Amino acid sequence: MSNFKRRDFIKTTAAAGVGATLFAPNIVKGKDDRKVRIGFIGVGGRGRSHLRNILLRDDVIVPAICDIDPEAITKAQKMIKDAKQKAEAYTEGEFAYEKMLDRDDLDGVIISTPWLWHTRMAVAAMRKGKYAGVEVSAANTIEECWDLVETYEETKVPCMILENVCYRQDVMAVLQMVREGVFGELLHYRCGYLHDLRGVKFNGESGAEFGPGSHGEARWRTAHSLHRNGDLYPTHGVGPVALMADINKGNRFVSLTSTATKARGLNDYIVKKAGEDHPNAKLKWKLGDVVTTTVTTARGETIIITHDTNLPRPYSLGFRVQGTNGLTDFDYHTRRVFIEGTSKGHGWEEAKPYLEKYDHPLWKKYGEYAKGSGHGGMDFFVAHAFVESIKRKVNPPMDAYDAAAWSAITPLSEMSIANNGEPQSFPDFTRGRWMTRKNDFALNDEF
């Protein structure tokens, strides 16, 4: 039913003309101005999740896809055929995406590839005049962060970091509470990525293999844990917090310090799965099992970010927002609020009444259509924002400056840990414009 609802949503808004600019002229001259043309670079698990949501829209055509994995291409092509569309596949080598980007019938591309390709593909897309929607994190090094910003400034072609958690329903409700002053002046945040990924990092015959011959993210993601020590995946937590704290739009990240525990979780997992004699049991993993990063902002707030993916644990993003009037801890396993003068005594209140009262207008408007789109509905909103930004020819709600600032946490945390927790300064990717830019995230009635 959810799929039909989302299709009906597109048809209804088309007929009613929701918003004066809902169907702005298409970027590609001579094409149907009610159709956005989006290509896909990477159609593995995450890429096909985006593809599924995009194919449900009657206002989008998918003319081309790119991947070097034949199985991924086959699965994606079946989805496209079932949607009564036809796409050309680009599969010849790691740089096949460059040929796809030479097409003149693409308005934008969605990039869902291994991390090391994100920046170069986004930069290539912008240079070819295509909106770049890039999965997280958007960059691996400070140089890559600058590449995103400088390419956007040079080409004026937008780049959107596809951070779906920014659209999670409880996250957006808390954003409303922040904007309406429920917590008073904000002082402190906590967030992170606390997710047992051992089963993602390893598979194969023994359950302890990675790299060539394995499948899924084990082919590429696990190597980062072997060679790098830092917060390797910060944006699910820090993206929502950055929007609440007006980062790049009235505020900015100033510095961070990071520390890491010893690395034991992956060795222990391999031994339990395959025994002490398995070759991978002898590896020395660089990534500390728990990485803790503290960020300071220009307005004097602090943000604690935790990265924890190598140990047995339930999933959590560890959100906390705290101000002069109170605070909230909110996640799937704990949703609670304390507001001075409202909450009784010094006890916590259930967050549910607050989350319902401050449910964001976008969720009130589109929540039913978002059901079944993935990750509790937030995947609908992030895809919708990307498509609508292209239609309207406007900068997306999470732009190249956000992609750079949020992603910079990874290399800066690596540098801090390598230097015994020494503070690291954030570049000002906006070159001072953070002081005058306005935070308009989710203030538009459409995205």
Automatic annotation (TrEMBL):
- The yes or no answer to whether the keyword Oxidoreductase is present is no
Q: What are the names of the required cofactors?
A: NAD(+)
Domain (Gfo/Idh/MocA-like oxidoreductase N-terminal): residue spans on this chain: 36-161
What top-level branch of life does the organism fall under? Answer: Bacteria
Does the record's keyword annotation contain Hydrolase? yes
Name the Gene Ontology molecular function terms of this record. hydrolase activity, acting on glycosyl bonds; nucleotide binding
Ordered alphabetically, the record's keywords are: Glycosidase, Hydrolase, NAD
> InterPro entries annotated for this entry?
Gfo/Idh/MocA-like_OxRdtase_N, Gfo/Idh/MocA_oxidrdct_glycsds, Glyco_hydro_109_C, NAD(P)-bd_dom_sf, TAT_signal, TAT_signal_bac_arc
In this chain the Glycosyl hydrolase 109 C-terminal domain maps to 172-350
Q: Which NCBIfam families match?
A: TAT_signal_seq (TIGR01409)
Task: Identify its protein family.
Answer: Belongs to the Gfo/Idh/MocA family. Glycosyl hydrolase 109 subfamily.
Cross-referenced PANTHER family: BCDNA.GH03377 (PTHR43818), GLYCOSYL HYDROLASE FAMILY 109 PROTEIN (PTHR43818:SF1)
What is the protein name stated in its UniProt record? Gfo/Idh/MocA family oxidoreductase
